[in-house]
Amino acid sequence: MHNATIFISDLHLTIERPEVTKKFLQFLDTGATKAKALYILGDLFDTWIGDDDFSPPINRVKKHLQALTAQGVPVFYIHGNRDFLIGKRFSEQTGVVLLDEYSLIDLYGTPTLLTHGDLLCTDDLPYQAFRQKSHTQEWQQNVLSKPLILRILYARWYRLRSYFHKKKKSQDIMDVNAGTVINVMRQYRASRLIHGHTHRPAVHDLDIDGQKAQRFVLAEWTKDSVNLLCWTTAGYVIEHL
User: Fold this and answer.
1) What domain range is 44 assigned to?
2) Residue ranges of the chain with pLDDT lower than 50?
């Protein structure tokens, strides 16, 4: 990981997953300190109900992120579908830079598009409708104006509802739409795409208007499996912690 640009996503940190939190904090204190940059592509937390929430393990994670950025390691974040309410206060407290939902970077000479991945799942029409509504300023201000305890209860209800809705959906609907991937990469003139969300880690070879391209899908973190996508000038490697 020395001087590598590291990409991770879908840690879903919560008090119910202490093993994953422990692995992440250890990573921030050790391997991440040697990184050129760290990109977290969404769903670092399983839920986020506002920057005023102090439920475990939020404060510990903030503290370790702030320690990493204070050492000079840039950390970038793209909102996920679970923690899209992460805001300015979180950024100020941790030093983490919040990026747009689609962010194009130059990764060692290759235009690389970064996103969480939920925007690519265009076959899931009910989710896309909810996403559009929940990303409006009016909806978010309405939610964040509620007392913290009500937001905590709402988040628990939403997680339960989401669980049962997913059980009713086909796996194909919850995966990315191939046409959407091509169109988005064409729009941003990217020959590489990195995202998470689907929990289907893989490297896909693509053809966009006769040009070779690739799509990298990041893995979910679990207590038994932690994968990092690491890039250097020599190329990429998937490291297992």
Assistant:
1) 5-240
2) none
